[in-house]
Specification:
- The N and C termini lie far apart (about 90 Å).
- About 45% of the residues lie in helices and about 20% in strands.
- The protein folds into two domains: about 150 residues, Response regulator (Rossmann fold); about 140 residues, Rossmann fold, CATH 3.40.50.2300.
- It is α/β, with parallel strands linked by helices.
- The chain has a six-stranded parallel beta sheet with strand order 2-1-3-4-5-11, sandwiched between helices.
- Strand 6, helix 6 and strand 7 form a beta-alpha-beta unit.
- It is built from 13 helices and 13 strands.
- The longest helix is centred in the first third of the chain and has 24 residues.
Length: about 325
């Protein structure tokens, strides 16, 4: 009898120990909440950033985080001002949001500087490691992860040569204060110079100087390249007003810039990029993963698009080679509001 009782006691203790172990093993699982608050912040309004945001929200909705049901989105725009971003970060902290989605490099930098506790997923960011948002792109280490919009620079450079075979000088227009733009410029400059093509940088630090900088470039170059620069993207029609008059092709970093009046691109689908960012956020909110252990993810080959604005090419007298036309998605210039 005593032996049976001893075995029963041992069995009870074993079950209890297993239960404790299972509880400990689930320590990374977050308790499901009735309501979630998610902060979404952009540096400035432009089509690529807005599209990435829409993709992010759609992914969350498709995975059960529905606005007006169990989720509240607190959306803010920095209006291209650093001080505004700092205030937005404090708002998110005060509101005790469960997660922040930061669209663009400088936006993510401000959010990360403000909190090391709230999970942050970024999108439309070129290189997290270079921006010092993570320890390494493959092992973030901090409370920040997300998706990169790193451009297929070589393919965009090759597109320039295909469209303008006799190109001698390419101008690159960008905001010198955006680190994502600096990285793209350096990469494109290296590629073009390896092809024997000269590069003229058109750097500006204030949007009020952008159009004059574009004008200066148009006087000395054969083609203008636009990286995925937030300031440039917010005012593409201003650039096109200059390049149309000079009859200069504009090769863009992404499709929305082509829809803004650029000539062509081989670039990223920002809706798909934002959607994938949302899928990463779902894993964090559900407790399946921690930002610190989630590698930065990149656009897949199938998420890249060759886009041509044929009406713009006709306007400046540029003949698009037939092999490009056969592969390209044709877009038209959207009317400006």
């Amino acid at each position: 009898m005593k032996g049976n009782m001893w075995r029963k006691c041992c069995a009870v203790l074993t079950i209890a120990a297993l239960a404790v172990g299972m509880t400990a093993g689930c320590g990374n699982q977050r308790e499901e909440k009735a309501q979630y608050k998610i902060g979404i912040v952009q540096l400035v309004n432009h089509d690529a950033a807005n599209t990435a945001r829409d993709g992010f929200v759609a992914a969350l909705a498709d995975n059960g985080f529905v606005e007006g049901d169990n989720t509240t989105f607190i959306e803010r725009n920095g209006q291209n001002e650093q001080s505004n971003l700092e205030g937005i970060a404090q708002t998110f902290i005060n509101e005790e949001v469960d997660l922040i989605c930061a669209v663009s490099t400088s936006t993510a930098q401000v959010m990360a500087a403000a909190t090391s506790e709230i999970p942050i997923v970024g999108t439309a960011i070129t290189d997290y490691e270079e921006a010092r948002l993570v320890e390494r792109n493959d092992a973030p280490g901090y409370n920040v992860t997300g998706t990169s919009d790193q451009n297929p620079i070589e393919k965009q450079g090759a597109l320039i040569v295909q469209l303008v075979p006799d190109v001698q000088t390419v101008g690159i227009l960008y905001n010198s204060s955006e680190i994502n733009s600096q990285l793209q410029v350096a990469h494109m400059k290296q590629y073009l110079q390896e092809q024997g093509i000269a590069v003229q940088e058109g750097a500006f630090s204030n949007i009020n100087d952008m159009q004059q900088t574009a004008q200066n470039l148009a006087e000395v170059v054969d083609v203008i390249y636009l990286p995925t620069d937030n300031t440039v993207a917010s005012a593409v029609p201003q650039v096109i007003s200059v390049t149309d008059e000079a009859r200069i092709p504009v090769i863009c970093g992404e499709v929305a810039q082509v829809e803004g009046g650029g000539t062509a691109t081989y670039g990223i689908d920002y809706y798909k990029l934002g959607y994938h960012t949302g899928e990463m956020a779902v894993k964090i909110l559900s407790g399946e993963a921690e930002p610190s252990a989630m590698p930065i993810e990149y656009a897949a080959e199938e998420d890249l698009a060759l886009a041509v604005n044929k009406e713009e090419a006709d306007r400046i007298g540029l003949v698009i080679p037939q092999e490009i036309m056969e592969q390209a998605v044709l877009v038209t210039t959207k009317a400006t509001k």
